[in-house]
Amino acid sequence: MVDIAPTARARLTARALRIDWTLVLFAALSIVLVFLVVAPLTRLFTESLSDPKTGALTLGNFVDVVSRSRYLTAYWHTIQLAAATVALSLLFALPMAWAVSRTDMPGRGFFYFGVVGAFIMPPFLGAIGWILLAGPNAGWLNQIWTALTGLEDPLVDVFSLWGLAFVIALNVFPLIFIFATSALDLISSEMEEAAAIHGAGPLRTTWLVSLPLALPAILGAVMLVFLETIALYGTPALIAIPARFNVATTQLTTFFAYPAKIELAMAFSVPLVFVTIILLGAQRLLLRGGHVAVSGKGGSRQPMRIGRWRWLLLAHGAVVTVLAVVLPAAILVSTSFQTAWARPPTLSNLTLANYRDILFEQATVRDAMVNTVAFALSAATLCTVLGFAVAYAATRRLLPFAGVLSALAVAPVAVPGIVLAICFYAAYAGPPLSLYGSGAIVVLAFVTRFLPIAYVSCASGVRSLNPELEEAVLIHGGSRLRALVQVVAPVLKKSLFGVWILVFVICSRELSTAMFLTSHNNRVISILTLDLSEQGKYETLAAMGVVLLVVTSTVVAVGMRLIGRDFMLRKN
Amino acid sequence: MPIDRRQFIVTTAALAASAALPRLAFAAPSLDDLYEAAKAEGEVTWYVVPMSSESAERAGAAFTAAYPGVKVNVVRSTAEVAFQRLNQDISTGVANCDVLTTSNIAHAMDLKSRDLLAIYTPIRKDEVFEEFRGIDPDDAYHVSVAGPMSIVYNTDKVTEVDAPKNWPDLLDPKWTDHVAIGHPGFSGYVGMWAVKMKELYGWDFFETLAEINPHIGRSSIDVVTTTASGETLVGAGPTASALISAAKGNPIAVIYPTDGTVVITSPSAILADAPHPNAARLFSEFLLGPEFAEVVAADFGNPIRPGVPLAAGVVPFDEMKVITATTDQMINGIPELAEEFRDTFGI
Q1: Are A363 and A455 in contact (CB under 8 A)?
Q2: Closest chain A C-alpha to B13 CA, distance in angstroms
Q3: Helices (H), A348-362
Q4: Measuring CA to CA, which residue among A527, A357, A370, A123 is closest to residue B77?
Q5: Which of A14, A50, B9, B36 has the most C-beta neighbours closer than 10 Å?
Q6: What are phi and psi of B267, to 5 degrees?
Q7: Is residue B10 scored above 70 in pLDDT?
Q8: How confident is the model at residue A68 (pLDDT cuts 50, 70, 90)?
Q9: Half-sphere exposure of A494 (CA within 13 A, CB side)
Q10: Looking at the complex, does the CB of residue A532 fall below 8 Å from at least one CB of chain B?
């Protein structure tokens, strides 16, 4: 071994002197990356600092932002909303995570169904479902409440701060669930047993031992939920406007009314980006913190026996699943077959006309559905390939500045989707590229936006792979490219496919990134939903939503079949 | 949309030609000639505001039925969104839209002042009611939809006797939490309506309205849906949408207010850089013609040309008290009002 190694290395060096096409390929990829990420993101700062008329350097846009009380109120509302959403998501996710991870509660597989379902449900569809359910006067829950109690005052009002936070929380709680379960899964039971031996009951043990150990992961997830909420546009557009609760994203879109104030929009976005960067930095520090007890899978793990408590936990998880998945999906399905959504689903109110309309008559809807699937397929493929290539190049240090590459690949995560959309608009819409209105601009935007997810997942895959496999190919005269295509990719194919599906699902429902990039040729379902919702066409919307849900659930079901149910839950 | 070389040459040639010629009105020789030329183009893209997406799709289908071989791409949105998208198209140099029909006439005027509209004198120009003729002396745009906006109410929960009879009746505290309006920052109809309310009753009208916590949708059509659902009981909405909804079996009815039904005249214009100029001209003729009037009438609208039977329950223009906005109100009033509205209602 000692003798052979230098020879092998010499041969490797000799081969490296010939043109290594892999390196060329990777160099090209890094140029693509710079183009995709750096070009749009620098626009954010240059535009926010330039005078709308002269283009000269100015701080005037920022002065305009801080001197309008309505703009500042929008920030304040956003913070309130994000705090309320975090509180509700913790309430939904933590008991579920603990029950699944640490206890002998029955029906744990069912909880995954709830979590994956909540993840698949596009936020704007969940919002529409909840408008139908919890509209203060006509929502089904309130109608039933009034029928049962005779009270005119609504039981729940979706058009309020808490209503909005509730709907968002039902969509984002899976994030907290995933982080919390993965941390709790790593805690060895010995510590909990120690507490039990000293006389602590299950609750006290959890409070004193398990929770503190999982706390960094949970706090990290809390920050992600906070960030998701401040960046969300679809749900606020549907709920916050009738609720008269202006948030940062609804305020941002008003800058695009003619005459568009792009510079002001950029300046208004800068604080959102800074908040995101700070919170992401804090999250990294937390997750890196030296909590030895959760660092490995070494210790034995015994589910905690919690007796009667498990039924309570089961009920809690069931309620959350019903609220997040079953109720909205059911109301969407039933509405999609109705002539008039607020009337009881009696025979005379049932119809197939909504499906006939969207599938055969309204060309707009059909085109948008085709676009959605086509863009999601292309973006998922490109994103996976790019994410994998960058992850490989960075992890194996094939190029100088590998660290810069990986930083670039995750940089888009620091920019809220709707802000990213404005950057893409500024960078690509006009000359020289003039991509506005094309499918390419939407695909580019999706690829950039979701590159961090693809990169992080691929990087953990590559890291898990011993480099000896590739070196074997190189030693036997194979090229780096061959090693990549014939060894690395096949070994990682399950996780690559997992990434692909994940990105596909996210792209199929992405709204905020597509906001300012779509014209009539490249509209996607999410944008069309927003357009139709302003007319209150819930029956048509519901039918569209059901079709979208069928498509994405099929893809996810196939994925789970092929690569196991937890592929979507491994994102971090 | 990638621009291929041929298209580029054709476009530049056309631009050069139009620059060389003085801006003369293009008068079509005949509908048949237009149809032949339109067939070669194969499609027309219509940005449309003052109709629901269903009605607009029906109009598109009626056009293709009348002129087989020419497809209509319908892009329906609220006035502000349509104008925002069109301006995005323009500022990025992408020519998508052939014909724009908007409920905010100020948008058409603005486009005209920026030389972005094609001048076209329709053959059917004088077939419409006299009051809708010649709103633009240069023939840059023509009225193609005239939509009344009236009071709507939920018939399950409000009797005709209790229903509001005039606009200030909407401010009665008994409608607290139950009155619906649209947003002038999105909807052209709501902009016009709000300008007239401000003129008739002052800004107090909106301050009183804010006190009874209205449900604010984006489009005026949303008012009809929320009222039909019982989410709200009364509101200010487009008459035609309310009557369509009622015909579907929804519990909604219309009151033509005693102080005046606000009639919003929506102009149509051909874009100067329309990618399908002949189809656009043919479509403009269609908007003034009998086929479109029939689609409008069938969807409970008031067509702009005589001789088309109205649907049951639709009151003809000459039997209602009509109020319309002045040009100045449309151009200067609405943007200012939208800001005021955002300040009063916080959204």
Answers
A1: no
A2: 20
A3: 353-356
A4: A527
A5: A50
A6: -85, 155
A7: no
A8: confident
A9: 11
A10: yes
A153 touching chain B per CB within 8 A:
no
Judge whether A149 is closer than 8 Å to chain B, CB to CB: no
> Does the global pTM surpass 0.90?
no
How many Å from the N-terminal Cα to the C-terminal Cα in chain B?
35
- Per-residue confidence (pLDDT) for residue B124, from 0 to 100: 92
pLDDT bin (cut points 50, 70, 90) of residue A2 is very low
* Intrachain domains B31-146+265-314 and B147-263+327-345 with the same fold: yes
Dig out the tokens for B342 from the structure: 């955002």
| B252 chain-A contacts, CB cut-off 8 A | none
Which chain A residues touch B216 with a CB distance below 8 Å? 241-242, 244
Partner B contacted by A353 (CB < 8 A)? no
Mean pLDDT value across residues A388-404: 83
Mean pLDDT of chain B: 87
Q: Do A361 and B3 touch (CB under 8 A)?
A: no
Nearest C-alpha neighbor of B231 from the set B245, B217, B246, B248: B217
Q: Assign B3 a pLDDT band (cuts: 50, 70, 90).
A: very low
Confidence of residue A254 (pLDDT cuts 50, 70, 90): confident
Using the beta-carbon criterion (under 8 Å), do B53 and A531 form an inter-chain contact? Answer: yes
Residue A169, pLDDT > 80, answer yes
- Please enumerate in sequence order all residues whose Cβ is within 8 A of that of B111, keeping only pairs 6 or more positions apart, or say none: B86, B100, B117, B269, B271
If one compares A353 and A196, the residue with the highest pLDDT of the two is A353
Tell how strand B252-255 and strand B141-154 pair up: antiparallel
Contacts of B185 in chain A (CB under 8 A): 254, 257
pLDDT digits (tens, 9 = 90+) for B235-249: 999 999 999 889 888
Determine contact, residues A506/B76, Cβ cutoff 8 Å.
no
The alpha carbon of B72 is separated from its chain's Cα centroid by a whole number of angstroms, namely 17
CA nearest neighbour of A519 among A440, A448, A451: A440
Residue B173: exposure state from Cβ atoms within 10 A (0-12, 13-18, ≥19)? exposed
Question: Which chain A positions have a beta carbon within 8 Å of B345's beta carbon?
Answer: 244
> What is the rounded average pLDDT for all residues in chain A?
83
A360: phi then psi, degrees, rounded to nearest 5: -120, -25
**Cα separation values, A286 from A93, A186, A281, A443, Å:** 20, 16, 9, 34
Q: A247 to chain B: nearest residue by CA? A: B347
CA torsion through residues A14, A17, A21, A25, sign = positive
Right CATH for B147-263+327-345 from 3.40.190.10, 3.90.850.10, 1.10.10.60, 2.40.100.20 = 3.40.190.10
Domain ranges of chain B: 31-146+265-314, 147-263+327-345
For the segment(s) B31-146+265-314, the CATH number from 3.30.10.20, 1.50.10.10, 3.40.190.10, 3.90.226.10 is 3.40.190.10
Q: Write down the residue that tokens 């240059």 correspond to.
A: A46
Alpha-carbon dihedral sign for residues A95, A96, A100, A101: negative
CB contact under 8 A, B74 and A430: no
Q: Name which of B71, B249, B346 is nearest A340 (Cβ-Cβ).
A: B249
Q: Which residue has the higher pLDDT, A205 or A420?
A: A420
Peptide bond preceding B50 in cis form (omega within 30 of 0): no
- Tens of pLDDT along B109-148? 999 999 999 999 999 989 999 889 888 999 999 999 999 9
pLDDT digits (tens, 9 = 90+) for A258-314: 677 888 888 999 998 888 888 888 877 877 654 444 444 445 567 777 778 888 889
β partners of residue A50: A57
Closest to A442 in 3D by CA, of A368, A514, A371, A527: A514
Residue A37: the pLDDT is 86
